[in-house]
Amino acid sequence: MTITEKILCKHTDLEEVHPGMLINAKVDIALGNDITAPIAIKEFRKAGGVRVFDRDKVVLVPDHFTPNKDIDSAQQCKFMRDFVREQGISHYYEVGVAGIEHALLPEQGVVLPGDLVIGADSHTCTYGALGAFATGVGSTDLAAAMMTGEVWFRVPETIKIVFHGTLQKWVSGKDLILYIIGLIGVDGARYKAMEFTGETVIQLGMADRLTIANMVIEAGAKNGIFIPDDITKAYVQEKAKRPYTFYTSDPDAAYAAVIDIDVGKIEPQVAFPHIPSNVRGISQAGNVKIDQILIGSCTNGRIEDLRVAAGILKGRKAAPYVRLIVVPATQEIYKMAMKEGLIEIFINANAVISPPTCGACLGGHMGVLANGEKAVSTTNRNFIGRMGHPGSEVYLASPAVAAASAVLGRIAGPEALSGVRE
Amino acid sequence: MKCKGKIWKFGDNIDTDAIIPARYLTSSDSEALAAHCMEDADPDFVNKMSVGDIIVAGENFGCGSSREHAPIAIKAAGISCVIAKSFARIFYRNAFNIGLPIFESKDLWDKVSSGQEIEVDGDNGSIRITDTCIAPLHINPIPPFMQELIQDGGLMKHLAKKRV
After folding, report:
1. A23 in B contact zone (CB under 8 Å)
2. Which CATH architecture has domain A3-261?
3. Which ipTM was obtained for this model?
4. Which of chain B's residues have a Cβ under 8 Å away from the Cβ of A64?
């Protein structure tokens, strides 16, 4: 069996599972946020739900339209908070403690290797970086899981992605996943698991792995997963407050496809509007002038991302008329960034620092685009209207490309900065 | 399950941000969401469509965000069913879970244009294009478990039935 099949199997009473089987699996964590949980809570009540199946396994995070952007958002957050209080939910993270859910849960040791995690948020797949099975669902599936502790799945086939070679300078996990989405398309892994392996994986720290797993949904995948190793162990051992299991794929596991990728040939990537698969190498980006840069999100708002961006922005400034917005993904990351002097570098570069929130990534608040404006963003989606007006444009890239683009006022990689000082 | 209505055609990869933009997710009220159904794919859609109409789309309909607000908006706007070449995984689950009928057909899209009327028979798995002599088109069969969900009236009702 593959690692995905093994984790699914372990959460049923079955001896073995294989692709195509319909199973009922027990969940270790069921997650919702201020946008998706209110519908789930209503469905839970409508179906006669009284108590959640386990108050330690339901996780609720107000992160999308928080700090409350308007009265309606405030009402949604309050509705969720009232439910949290009533049910005694242990994993609730208030504004000021919280952060963007998919950065927060691994950081706090809430999700661990071997877990089966569902979340009413499509980027729940992020936790596959830890060697967990994690997938996005809708609010009704979350309601069912809150009630029964179980969820139904069709066991997915797996596509194995094998990374070979050495990463070029400035090439990160973001560039690898953008490259893959460009290669296989936004439905290239539809209904399937994506398993990332190969000798290059040891060059990828946990932040890069989280970024890669985060965006498998942009290829249509059910989940993305890394086989846990020493890097995983180093990351989780201080965070875990309960036991966890490392699974691995059997040597004779069956795959729907195997894709070999020589990472040495990949340069920093940019996804042009209006679909994440519209990917070009930075050398082919042309001269695209930009209005806004967003560095943050569940994809690229971790401390490693901020360090890369600060390294480029140090002693430099955002170009005139370019709005640079930096969003540390959690309070913990914010604190680390302050301690390391990164926040000061950003402010000196004329960046505005946003509190942790999903806000701007989905055109909610804290950086919405006007008609005709262009943004380079380290987020995960560039659909029409994703970050604001339907006439705006989003270009997806790594923190390094975003930072360099901020300085130059056009889409550019860090190499283009040589000699450019303030 | 049978539906008959005028069709509205959309292309490949219609994402859930286009179906219901995030700027409207400050509410989970179905009527409020319905007022903005398909807005970023066709800003005038809700004014042009009539109750009972059918959305016909290309590959990977409903990709992107897991927001259940998307099938809710479509259902509450009065669309009777969605027929696509294929559906994104989370949208597919959500549609069955909330009781929005959806069907897969690889052939229909190329044979129809917006405004034509079609008749969908979910029970025998066929689509007839009204007022044409084109032979009825085949719908991909719905997996038995999903049929059970529809018969029971969605996931929560299905679970309630199982618990009794």
Report:
1. no
2. 2-Layer Sandwich (3.30)
3. 0.96
4. 25
